[in-house]
Design brief:
The chain has 629 residues and is an alpha/beta fold. It folds into 2 domains: 242 residues, FAD/NAD(P)-binding domain (3-Layer(bba) Sandwich); 208 residues, Cholesterol Oxidase, domain 2 (2-Layer Sandwich). The protein is built from 17 helices and 24 strands. The strands form 7 sheets. Strands 1, 2, 11, 12, 13, 14 and 24 form a 7-stranded mixed beta sheet that branches. The protein has a 6-stranded antiparallel beta sheet with strand order 8-18-19-20-17-23. A 3-stranded antiparallel beta sheet has the order 3-5-4, with no helix packed on it. A hairpin with a 2-residue loop joins strand 12 and strand 13. The longest helix has 21 residues.
Length: 629
């Protein structure tokens, strides 16, 4: 399905009620909601609308993130210290950092994500409510927003011993009529592969042994059920954003609404925003460049798919201006939103003056507070291949009418292993440094995945006898990262540095120890696997002492949920960029709605939280603009 309406850069009417920059989890649903309410909306997306099997097929999510027609390649620094940084096996010296793929297509990073859709912890919202003094940020109202967007289609967890199925459904509180279809891997798929069943059984037994879960309590549990406590420890399934075997997300929401109200929603593709236009301190529009692959994070032209060749650094047209009668909203993400704010004169004075940018608002918090979760992987080798992978390249065939049995099953029936994101099952746990809520999720993949580097997606399926048990540490302490301008050229990629562990904020020891606790759980799972494990490849069983594991974590950890670079905060916080209603301080008619807004990273996976703030921002903005003119 192609985008129903894209507008044209040659359109004479460049005035809209709202101009929104970015079509991802923040900007896409917001644009849709405002248009459905009767407002005229222009959505600027720097990428194209690229649709291909890598996008559609959930299991191909790794390939999607390396598809040159859908990605921007950011290379980020985990460490300023060169000696420590270059110890990371994923470091690319020629690019000066570690690969951090982001989406550059309709749907933003929701088009290349691993589709995981896990509800954040209630405390994440209650903390925001306390910070802002606004109860609408609390766990109760935010849960209702999740119900409003969720269309649960999965196989539910079996009832607890004291519940009926009706009681289970009432307590779970799933939304079933929203625009985002969520499901889980069909349990029957795992049952087709004895080795998958072995791994799933190992996760279950590890859960029961570690947490004393009785046999009469069915596993796995549902992490998105409203009655799953935030300190739950045990086996869980992983909800994913899949509809009828296809990826779904911001792109599909936009396409659906554009078809419903084509006169209200205009989607302009290949439009790179360069700055916000102001009349004194009032945001009145957005300047943008019209052209393919203008941003220098775009993949090299020789990596694009046949029929999609683009020049590497084309000459853009003269800047255009799209004017907003009511508001401008930035939803470019944790890297591009602070870059755009700074290019518009909103940021730390010294940095802006260094690049010759006139200072509109001296906002020291713009580009600061960059943070992420920490992830590592325990990779083991098995003594034989997964039989289900026999005769399959685990890739999309050149001839879509041909292909192996697994691809054909997805193509013809929208069924089978390709309808999943590849995860088999998970354990949610509390590390030794956890506070009230669980802070670890440990999950298994039947591939070799140990982080992001160029070519990682093909390397991950090169061997059919690998087991990766991933550890993700939530509620991390580090807030010392930053996004800073390299130049005043809007096509240049900013400098991104996370300042991991001891380079970062206080409490880094807890972060390291929490990840090590997760590695111990991962190894426990592998020890429960009945299939013969011939050895641990990463980090290797010789890395056994906690001091050695700490070195492994410091050098090899990664993340892919960057946030916080234009945070919400109080009037008394000089680092706060936004107020409780997403408004940029110091100017009017300008908001930010994306992962930049979070003072603290929410939950385990960030996409659901960004979808939720998009719904909340829709509420706030529509309340303040009650009627469409």
């Amino acid at each position: 399905m192609s985008t129903p309406t894209t507008g044209s850069a040659d359109d004479q009417d460049e005035d809209y009620d709202f101009v929104i920059v970015g079509s991802g989890a923040g900007g896409g649903p917001l644009a849709a909601n405002l248009a459905l309410a009767g407002h005229s909306v222009l959505l600027l997306e720097a990428g194209d609308d690229h649709h291909c099997p890598y996008y559609s097929i959930p299991i191909m999510q790794g390939y999607a993130s390396e598809d040159a027609d859908m990605r921007w390649d950011f290379f980020v620094r985990h460490w300023d210290n060169d000696e420590v940084q270059t110890n990371d096996d994923k470091y690319v010296g020629g690019r000066g950092g570690v690969l951090y793929p982001r989406g550059s297509t309709l749907g933003g990073s929701t088009a290349i994500s691993a589709l995981v859709t896990i509800y954040p912890h209630p405390s994440d919202w209650d903390h925001l409510a306390e910070l802002t003094g606004d109860p609408s940020w609390g766990a109760g109202p935010m849960r209702e927003l999740f119900r409003r967007l969720e269309a649960w289609r999965g196989v539910d967890a079996k009832p607890l011993p004291s519940d009926t199925e009706t009681q289970r459904d009432q307590k779970a509180g799933h939304g079933r009529d929203g625009w985002l279809s969520t499901t889980r891997a069909n349990p029957a798929v795992g049952g087709r592969e004895p080795m998958f069943l072995d791994i799933i059984g190992a996760i279950e037994q590890t859960s029961r042994d570690r947490y004393g879960i009785a046999e009469e309590v069915s596993l796995p549990r549902d992490p998105n059920a409203a009655d799953t406590p935030p300190d739950y420890q045990g086996m869980a399934f992983i909800p994913v954003a899949v509809a009828d075997g296809h990826r779904n997300g911001s792109r599909e929401r936009l396409q659906d609404v554009a078809a419903q109200v084509p006169d209200k929603l205009t989607i302009r593709l290949n439009a790179l925003a360069t700055k916000v236009v102001f009349d004194k301190s009032r945001a009145v529009g957005v300047e943008y460049l019209d052209g393919h692959r203008l941003y220098r994070a775009s993949a090299p032209a020789d990596q694009t798919a046949p029929g999609h060749d683009r020049p590497q650094q084309p000459t853009p047209t003269s800047p255009r201006i799209a004017r907003a009668r009511k508001e401008v909203i930035l939803s470019g993400g944790a890297y591009n939103t602070p870059q755009l704010l700074k290019l518009s004169g909103i940021g730390p004075r010294a940095e802006l003056e260094r690049h010759g940018i006139d200072v509109l608002v001296d906002a020291p918090g713009v580009g600061r507070n960059l943070h992420d979760r920490y992830e590592v992987s325990v990779v083991s080798e098995l003594d034989h291949d997964y039989p289900i992978f026999n005769d399959s390249p685990l890739d999309v065939p050149d001839d879509l009418d041909a292909g192996d049995a697994l691809f054909a099953e997805w193509r013809d029936q929208r069924d089978g292993p390709y309808t999943t994101n590849g995860s088999l099952a998970a354990i949610i746990a509390k590390s030794s440094v956890a506070k009230a809520d669980s802070d670890l999720i440990v999950f298994a993949l039947p591939i070799d995945f140990h982080g992001y580097y160029p070519g990682y997606s093909r390397d991950s399926v090169r061997h059919h006898n690998r087991l990766s048990v991933l550890v993700l540490k939530a509620h991390t302490n580090n807030r010392a990262g930053s996004v800073t301008l390299r130049s005043p050229d809007p096509r240049d990629v900013p400098d991104i540095g996370f300042r991991y562990f001891e380079e970062g904020s206080a409490g880094y020891e807890d972060d390291v120890n929490g990840v090590i606790d997760g590695i111990e759980i991962a190894r426990d799972i592998v020890d429960h696997v009945q299939t013969a494990v011939t050895g641990e490849l990463i980090p290797g069983r010789d890395v056994a002492e906690r001091a050695d594991l700490a070195t492994f974590v410091r050098e090899q950890a990664w993340g892919h949920h960057a946030c916080g670079t234009a945070k919400i905060g109080t009037d008394s916080d000089p680092q706060a960029v936004l107020d409780k209603d997403f408004r940029v301080r110091g100017v009017s008619r300008l908001r930010v709605v994306d992962a930049s807004v979070f003072p603290d990273i929410p939950g385990f996976f960030i996409a659901s939280a960004v979808y939720m703030i998009s719904e909340k921002a829709s509420q706030v903005i529509l309340e303040q603009h009650r009627t469409a003119e």
